[in-house]
Amino acid sequence: LRLWLIVLALFSSPIQLFFGYVEMYPPFVIAGFLYLIASFKTLRERRRLWLPVALFVVAVYTHIQAMLFAPSLLYLVAQRASKNRAAVERYAWPTLTMLTVAAMAVE
Hints:
By secondary structure, this protein is mostly helical. The protein contains five helices and no strands.
């Protein structure tokens, strides 16, 4: 997980924003990465949802583009709330894909 996050951080396109780009995206990038880390830990270690939800709110506050994380937050909530995990995994990916495409179409 750490290696994947380091590679993602070093080779992602937002890294260019730290080198003098005019707009102010670094708070959004940091909040987004922290949200992803907290989400992975919540799924793997069965932690509480308050940290990913709080980081999602901070990410949306820093930039509206963070709304693209909403399907992953819905998946986290469904994963924690559902007793039938197989049903969640079967229907979650098509639903999340449709929500993500719809969110991108809105922008």
